[in-house]
Structure formats: C-alpha cells, structure tokens
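note to self: the first set is below, dont mix up w the second
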Amino acid sequence: MERTARAVFMITLSDIQLLRGGKPLLDGASATIHPGDKVGLVGKNGCGKSSLFALLRHEVTLDAGNCNYPSGWQLAG
C-alpha cells in the first residue's frame, strides 16, 4: 500500500495544545497511531488523559495543532 494512501487510515496528532482553565494540559504533543496498534495512556490525575479522549469524541476543540482520523471511525468506550 502506498504511504500516502495509508495516511487516511490512522489517527494523527500534530503539535497539539489543550488548555483547561488557562492551564496547559497538552502542549506540543504529537503522535501517529496506525490501525491495529495497541496504545496505553498513563499519567497522573489532571494531566490531560480524559481531555484527549474528549478531543477524539469531538467534545472539546484544540487550542492549537491538528487532530485527524477517518470520519467513519468511532471511539469504543
């Protein structure tokens, strides 16, 4: 499969920033997650884990950066 065609079927976070109450939870974060990847998300309370999932569910918007994944994908919970 061509590299450009594969880009449509993954989650990409590029230099994202999420602020809550003026506090940066995520600042300059980037990641690429391919189909079939297993990903663990760990961190102390209040560091932005739930906010990242809210972003993927379109419940919050980014303060900066880009978040992309195929429009037909759903987040299982």
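second set (the one i keep forgetting abt)
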Amino acid sequence: MKKGEQPQFSARWWKNSQPKGLKSADGLESALKAYETAKAKLESSGEEADAKDAGGALDGIDKAVKAVLSEAAKTKGNAEIDATTDCLKKFDRGSTQERKWIQEHTKAKGGDDDDDSNFADPDAYKTYLITVMKRLRSSGEMNFGFVLGKKAEDHRIALHKSKSAKALGTMLAKETGIHLMTWGIARSSEGRAGEMVLELEGRQIPGMGKKGARMLKKFKPLPFKKLVLLVDGQEVADLDDPDDSDSDEAAPDAATQTRALTELARRIQAVADPAQKADLARMATQANALLRSNELTDAEERIDELRAALDEAGVPANGGNGAPQDVSGGSPAAFTKARQAWSATRKRVEDEIEKLRTAIVSAYQDHDIASDLEASFRTKVLGTVLQNFDDRLSEKLNEVAGATDAAQRKKLIDEAKGIMDGYRTYVSSAPLLADLDDNPFEPLKIRQTVTTTLSALEQIVH
C-alpha cells in the first residue's frame, strides 16, 4: 500500500492494496464483500430490514479493521505496513459517512406519505423540495405538478410517486392561487448531473425552463440546478415568454464569495465532531479551488451547500468567536513592509517544507522509491502549497503602496483583503497543511506561521 492512500469500502481495493503477510487481511476482505452486497441490496430496495443488514455489515468492517491494526502493530520497520496502518486508521471517518448514506437512502426510498407541504410558505416549501428532490434522484422517476407565478420565489413544483401528475398540479393551483399550470413525469437525468428532466403531459408553458431554473437557484442548495423539457419524448427548447418580468440573479462576485467562504471556514473551527469537521473542511477546500480557477457559479453553489451544512449542524453564524475586530493603519511605507513580510513568510514556508523533504528522503535513501518520492514531493506537496500561498498578495500590496488615487487605492486594498481571505480559507480547511504540520518526520508550523503573519497584516490592510 502506498503512503497517503485513502481507504475505500471495496473488497477489490483491499485485495489489490493490502500488504503481504497479514493473516487478518482475509477477514477484512470478506467484511468488505459482505458490506458491498448489503449496500447494493439496500440501494435497490430501501427497506428498513436491508438498512439494518448494511449497518451490521459496517460493524463487521469495523471489527475486521481493528483486527488488522492489532496485527500490524506487531510489525516494526516495515514501510508498507506503516502506510497500511495510517490508511486503516481513517476507516472510522468513512464509516461515519457510510452510515449517513444508509440513513439518508433508507429515508429517500421510503414511502411518500409525508409529501404534503405548506406550499404557500417559502421555508416549508424549501424543506419539502430538498426531501422530494433527494427522493427523485434516488428513485429515478416521479409524477410532477408545476405552477408558475411572476417571480422565482412564487413558482412551485410538487413531486409524488403515486399521486397522478394532473392531481398534483390541481392541488398546487388550489393551495397557491396560481393557475398557470402543467404536469407530467419528472426524471433524474442519466449522465447529466444536476439536471432534472420534465416529460410534459400537460402543455409547455412559455419560459418554464428558465423560470424553473430560477426557482431551483432561489431555493438552493438542491440536487438539481437545471430543467430539461421533453415533449412527445423529444427534448425541446424553452419557449420565449415576452411577458417575463423577472430577471436572472447577478453573476457571482469573486471577492464577495471569498469573504463568505472565509467566514464559513471560521465557523468550521467551532465544529466539535472530528469526522464532521473534516467533511466540512473538504467542502471548503473544494469551494476555494473553484474560486481560484474562476469557476464562480460552481463555487457559489458549493459555498451555499457548505453554509447549509453548517446551519444544519447548529454552528453559530460567527463561529462562536464574535464579530471581526476593526483595525486601523496603512501608510505606503507600511504596505511596503507588509509586502516584505508576506514574501518572507512564503520563503519560510518553503524552507520548512524543504526540511521535511530532506528528512523523508534521508529516511528512504536505501529504498528504490527514494528518487520517485523526492520528485513527487516537490510536485505534489511543495508545488501545491506554494501555488496556494502565491505571489498575488505581494504584487497587490506593492500596487497599493504606489497608488495615489484614493478610489483606486481602496479598490486595490479590497482586492488584497480578498486574497488574504483566500489564504485564510486554505489554512483552515486544507488537509494537506494539517498533515504537513503533524507529520512524524519533521513536525512543522506552517499554519501557525501563515496565520500569525496574516493577523499582523490585518492591522495594515483594511
């Protein structure tokens, strides 16, 4: 098994990755096979009994993992065994996610007697949408009724596995007072993630594709973001609606989204459960990567999902740390010193990682993998960190120091603050930095170093 490999709930993965010589390895392979079988059965049926069996199979994996860890602990000085131990210790986090999947899937596959909602209440409707759309994504097909009002927040769709589509539309019209109605069969699109297919049995209402997408965005985060319309089994374009007075939301702004993500990253630190905290941190890292690649729409959706997850976890909006402190300062000379401080910090981080690289290469110098390990470390570790702690802040602070126009100077300062927010998000959410700081070869203080510098720069960049 390779160092840093992540556990998978797959018997095939374990069979291919397990080190030789562990008698308990077969037990884990059998446990993984049993869980794969139980999970497939639950995915097909959604029955409570099958959910119980899947949970029991997960318990079997937990026991098998402990047996392998116990045996591996008796073997010293074997790099492959050590890598296996590190990997298996992460199984408990994955087990938590699998149990969550079992719970959600069983609920999604269950009966739909709870499909009634107060469709006139936006909050109740949003809760309903999340539930039935997860059910649609899981089951693949449901009947739908759809009414369209004037604004995105007015539109309503109702989904049900057994109630007739036209009856759903009639029910919506009665509850909402909106009579622009249609109905049909809704499907989860195969191979087109985030798209919900509406096969129309009622009439095609002008603008319903665009309006439906606005509704989905209004009540996000949802499993679907776009509507695909079918008439007589063929995909059709949206009909133009000259009376459409609603407008699409403004395109997401990178600086605004970065500040929002930074605030959510602070909230993550208040999460007590380690597994849940790790999952939220991964979402923040993904959102930050999307922001850096300028995929702003996708980043906005991931940020919304992260915010919803934090709200569901009951984490207070300020992360329990109070409102941000106001600061003052910022002469041209101070910005020059700030630029020099960030450049020095970046160099210090590079030197720290270089120390670790030297220690690791020294430890494996007698192994055939030493040269490959060194090359991989420079590319995947050093390169990744320095890419996230780049020169943008130094360059921006240099621009601020030379700015004479007040409005331009303020704009540049705001941009510098956005860059700093991005760095903070990476510090608080990147698993790579945590692994580097806590490594067994040469423990580092990258997160502390960067956080200290950014806190000092806050006194200037405001």
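remember for set 2: Residues 332-363 form the longest helix (32 residues).
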